[in-house]
Design goal:
two-stranded antiparallel sheet; about 10% strand; disordered N terminus
Length: about 250
């Protein structure tokens, strides 16, 4: 399963937005994330020539979140001013996570992707903001010691947990094998697709797996004969979103 290399590592990767916010001591609400996403989409929608709420290549969107600093909006009945710290959080979530030595361990979200899904910030009646990690049940049951709350993790805590996961669960994490000769030789055809604005699992991981498979099996043309990868612009996580072409694309192939 290339997009989700393993459930446990995916759960760790999905901590990225909350880790960034913890480190910045700035918690961006879902409403504020939605404002950034809306303005970035409005600025980049015409990059592909169509004003349709879909950006074919989100990576081409170079809109800087700092341009929205000091904008005033209404969120949950309160007036909110976009701050430089909020813009920094947006930028770092977009960049993804790197380990202490610089190796990328989590791809960032594309500019027009809704960052609020993984951030999952709730605002109480008194204005207090709290984060709830959507994959907490996985981490709580498989990896975390009793009573440990990952929403308060520092980067050092996170990387220690990342190193611990393969030690305890390495036997379950080997899900990225490129040994597809059996699939190819059986004349089976398997189509794979991933949304380019997936707000839960960044599509770059699936693209990276596809490229490794192509290098292992004599190039893209050979692999596409039995296992092609399609990127679906506008389709959210698990086909939620605006893309309506997935079924017809599959049938044509």
């Amino acid at each position: 399963m290339p997009g989700l290399s393993a459930l446990l590592l995916a759960a760790l990767r999905e901590m990225c937005p909350q880790l960034v916010m913890n480190d910045a001591e700035t918690y961006v609400s879902s409403c504020e994330f939605a404002y950034f996403t809306h303005k970035i989409m409005a600025a980049c929608d015409m990059l592909d020539g169509y004003n349709d709420g879909i950006v074919i290549n989100p990576e081409d969107c170079e809109f800087e979140p700092e341009r929205l600093v000091v904008d005033k909006i209404a969120c949950e009945g309160q007036k909110t001013i976009m701050t430089a710290l909020m813009a920094t959080v947006i930028r770092k979530i977009r960049e993804g996570l790197r380990g202490p030595l610089g190796a990328k361990i989590r791809y960032g979200l594309t500019p027009v992707t809704n960052h609020g899904t993984l951030a999952n910030i709730t605002t109480g009646p008194d204005g207090t903001r709290a984060a709830y990690h959507i994959a907490l049940p996985v981490l709580d049951n498989l990896l975390l010691p009793p009573g440990v709350n990952p929403t308060s993790f520092t980067p050092a805590d996170y990387f220690a947990l990342w190193a611990q996961a393969p030690v305890e669960w390495g036997w379950t994490l080997l899900t990225e094998s490129t040994g597809f000769t059996g699939l190819r030789d059986s004349c089976t055809k398997l189509l794979s697709w991933h949304s380019s604005i997936d707000d839960t699992i960044p599509h770059e991981g699936t693209v990276e797996f596809s490229k490794r498979l192509q290098r292992h099996m004599s190039g893209a043309y050979k692999v596409d004969e039995f296992y092609p990868l399609f990127l679906a612009p506008g389709a959210g996580h698990c086909a939620l979103g605006k893309d309506r072409c997935l079924r017809s694309l599959s049938l044509r192939w």
